[in-house]
Amino acid sequence: MVSLKIIDVKAFMSNLLIQNIFDNFLVSEAEIYTFHQVHIDGKLNRDYYNNDELEVLGDRKYSLWSEIKPFIYSLVKGNKLPKVIKLVMLLSPAYTENVLKKSGLAFTPEEINGLFLNIRYEKNVLILTTGTSLKTFTLDKSLEYVWDSDLKLFLKYHEIPVEEM
After folding, report:
1. Mapping DSSP to helix (H, G, I), strand (E, B) and coil, where does residue 92 land?
2. Which top-rank group of organisms is this from (predicted)?
3. Backbone angles phi, psi at 158, to 5 degrees
4. Under a CB-based contact definition with an 8 Å cutoff, are residues 106 and 65 in contact?
5. pLDDT per residue over 52-68, tens digit each?
6. Using one digit for the tens of pLDDT, what is the confidence trace for 20-77?
7. Contact 101/107 with Cβ under 8 angstroms?
8. What are the backbone angles phi and psi of residue 141, rounded to the nearest 5°?
């Protein structure tokens, strides 16, 4: 696990809410605190979809950031900043599999619950925290280190300056 402080909060929020940099991340949950609190469970309600839509969704269990982003943007735009924004995002299974392939680790995609990115904005400070969840207990931290490193490379590639905490 690594915690990274975003140096330019305004630029990061633009990347998050307007650009498409994070669009392929899945959303586990989101909370926005303005004059009220909004909690979003990112888990898909499969009963909502017809058979054709379910076929397109495949095995996906969570909403894509690109699907939730317009709603979140509508909640936070305006003259007053939100008090708190909390997002729990995770890599899609396809991206998780790519991380595994690149790393050469012995883990299989079936052993991984998720590679998480927690985003927390409060009092004009924005912190990113990584997390990993495995289906079985292990003392092996190699996946955690690989995910931490991949996220840092992702941020560097997109020219998002951070300070490690």
Report:
1. coil
2. Bacteria
3. -90, 10
4. no
5. 999 999 889 999 999 99
6. 999 999 999 999 999 889 999 999 999 999 999 999 998 899 999 999 999 999 998 8
7. no
8. -100, 10
